[in-house]
């Protein structure tokens, strides 16, 4: 019998299908792994109100019950966290990682949905910084989240990204990827990887039109899939960058508001 490789996401539901657990489970499948999910929040988007996001957290005790179910089968090969929704849910995630001695842990410190620039829930962001970063094999903040976690505020240059990565590493994450993505000016999408001693700059041409809703979640899920399959952190990040670029190239316009990535893009292109 083939050896089953297990992956887990603790994250929210994006009803529009591009981000959240939907992105994670689709990506885990593309990586040939068996995906588990513990649902933390339900996010809806309102077409009658400019695609306004509503976030409904699930009771932390129900998140804990889901994790009890999942870990009844033993540890997983790699896991990630995404949108967590409350300080209590962050604590539940912390406990599950510790109790089950999880070693391949990707923390995507989701603070906002795309296009919004205020931290959704500042207490949860602090809890992620204090409780989850010390457990992270890799943390994957976008430019905005890296500014918040590092305390540097708005980041606008490659040098800013490197400094943020260094400061976030000091908070306990063993590896840091600051996703500049298309947010930095110029025609390149730039991410900075820092492993505590060396920086690697990943650079690809920006893709137009950018159907990139869910790109962040997909990137972190792809790193998780790579780690589960035994890649080194550096290899997992490099492959995830290719995987998410293909997902963006194959994205589509869902409606006038949003264009999700297509998680099967990497496979289609091969
Ligand atoms: O892209 C951030 C994100 C994460 N998780 C969920 C989301 C979103 C943005 O829409 O809905 C569940």
From TrEMBL:
GO BP terms in the entry? thiamine biosynthetic process
One GO term in the molecular function aspect is: phosphomethylpyrimidine kinase activity
Tell me which positions the record assigns to the signal sequence.
none
What does the record list as coiled-coil region(s)?
none
CDD domains the UniProt entry points to:
HMPP_kinase
**Enzyme class, broadest EC rank:** transferase
Which reactions does this protein catalyse? pyridoxal + ATP = pyridoxal 5'-phosphate + ADP + H(+)
Q: Which domain of life is it from?
A: Bacteria
Pfam families in UniProt: Phos_pyr_kin
Q: Which GO terms describe its cellular component?
A: cytosol
Q: Which UniProt keywords apply?
A: ATP-binding, Kinase, Magnesium, Metal-binding, Nucleotide-binding, Transferase
Query: Which residues does the UniProt record annotate as the domain Pyridoxamine kinase/Phosphomethylpyrimidine kinase?
Result: 14-261
> EC number(s) per UniProt?
2.7.1.35
Q: Which PANTHER family match?
A: PHOSPHOMETHYLPYRIMIDINE KINASE, PYRIDOXINE KINASE
Q: Which family does it belong to?
A: Belongs to the ThiD family.
Name used for this protein in its record: pyridoxal kinase
Tell me the lineage of the source organism.
Bacteria, Bacillati, Bacillota, Bacilli, Bacillales
